[in-house]
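Contributing new complexes? Match this layout with iron/sulfur cluster.
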Amino acid sequence: MATQMLPFYDRVEDALQNSTLQHALERNMPRFVALRAQALNKLIDEAALRDQARAIRAKSLARLDELLTRLADTVEARGGHVCWATDGKAAGQYIAELAQRQAVKSIVKSKSMASEEIHLNAQLEAHSLEVIETDLGEYIIQLSGETPSHIIAPAIHMTRQEIGQLFQEKLGMEPTEDIPTMTRTARRVLRQRFVQADMGISGVNFGIAESGGMVLVTNEGNADLTTSVPRIHVAIMGIERVVESLDDLAVMLQVLARSATGQKLSVYTTFLSGPTRPGEPDGPEEFHLILLDNGRSRILGSAYAEALMCIRCGACLNACPVYQSIGGHAYGGVYSGPIGSVISPLLQPDVPDVHQLPYASTLCGACQEACPVRIALPDMLLRLRGDAVQAGKVAPGEQAAMTAWQATMNNPALYRAGGTMASIITRLVGGREGVLKQLPPPLAGWTQHRDFPTFAKQSFSERWAAQHGTDEEPQ
Ligand code: SF4
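Output block (do not edit by hand):
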């Protein structure tokens, strides 16, 4: 948690210096990338499926008001309640008041990024309500007092040795690094919580407008217990997560599981449709759907509307070389990786250094390539950098450097002279190795984690002139 209080570049530095984190990332990240690639390669026409998924997301966003109204009407017709929450505070207030009205003491929760986004646990705990996470990864980070470091694998930054130690401290478990033993311990503790809970809170992967159904995609079965054992079920859905029909859903499910975990289909794909009806043996007595806006309407009306196509599969995080190096916590918010660098500044523009997140990208395009709905993440990252500059959110030193760079690039003679000087100096210092191990301030950060190659003896323009017999600038 302390790491998240630091300025962005200090968090990055901490992450790069953290050998346990580096070990966990090196071990876990390649697996996700390989599983996704295998799953998509098995499709007969991967490109066509992704195009179809993108078209469905675009269509849903274009008709968002109509689809959400249909969804809400259908949920209410089935006996459910709907809360249109403009922000996180409104959502938290609604749930807290509901819990107080219904004498709720204990709450179980399955994985929900929307609830993380609005810090729901903290809001409910402020009303003396106990909230227990039941997704294993979320439970682990709740025990360790952290936030998720990955959209679909919240505890990916931890090693099993760390988790073993945590369980020993918090659950009184005998020392072990055996994953099945740890899982069994967590399951035993959580089963009891399910039985005691009065309220279950879940996220929603997709809401289906035509049927009023909610779809939850999980691998542990905890969401099914969360939504069926307690007497009240509250589902929190970002307003962008609606699809029109079951046909649309069928396409989205095919790309979601493959992109997230490399599965054809997740172990549990659960369809929920409100409170228990007469004659049904189980299920909640009450169902409440929270439709969370929290800045999404603002994004929908902006140049960044495409970011709302995201289905939170995590593939762009796994593909990103920056995420692979620093993990999720360095981003400072709930959403990390390329999609986090786009939506965090849009959802929470007032967080002090959030405008720096779009710089956490090499713009290599791996995120867009991995995204099942082909969101133009690099374009948006660049545009957000432009917005930050326009808003004057650039350090004075950087502004001065860019002004000097602009002057140099506009003056060929100055550019050539600068290149010649740089070539002479770097080759002199770099010697036979051809690399600089340490640059002086303010460039020292570059060589903290990598070498800087010396400039070539002959510039490209000089080689061009020598080969083509003209010193005309190449176009
Ligand atoms: S931006 Fe694309 S790849 Fe990244 S989480 Fe969203 S849907 Fe997945």
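Reviewers usually confirm one structural detail per submission. For this one: The first helix runs from residue 2 to 5.
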